[in-house]
Amino acid sequence: MIRLVKDLLPIAAQDTFESRWSELPPSVRKVLIDRPGGPIDVGKLSRDVRHILVRTGLYTEGVGLLHDPPFFDWIRWNADSLPITHEGTP
Hints:
Layout: H1 2-12, H2 14-23, H3 26-34, H4 47-55, E1 59-60, E2 64-65, H5 69-78
Antiparallel strand pairs: 1-2
Helix pairs in contact: 1-5
């Protein structure tokens, strides 16, 4: 039953995940598509991207990336079709 919930949650929460994705700036979207749920070497990210990750609750200093497997699974499964830029932005 737990596996079924884990498998279906990213599908059931599609609207929520799309909304979360649309609120992220392109610089953060690129980081998440490149490493969805994986280890992110924040030391290699710009200060602005680190700040956005913290501000959006996706990253906590000293703890690391938010533990949100459904969201990161959704990103991984949809990476080829997710926009990195916002509409009207190059």
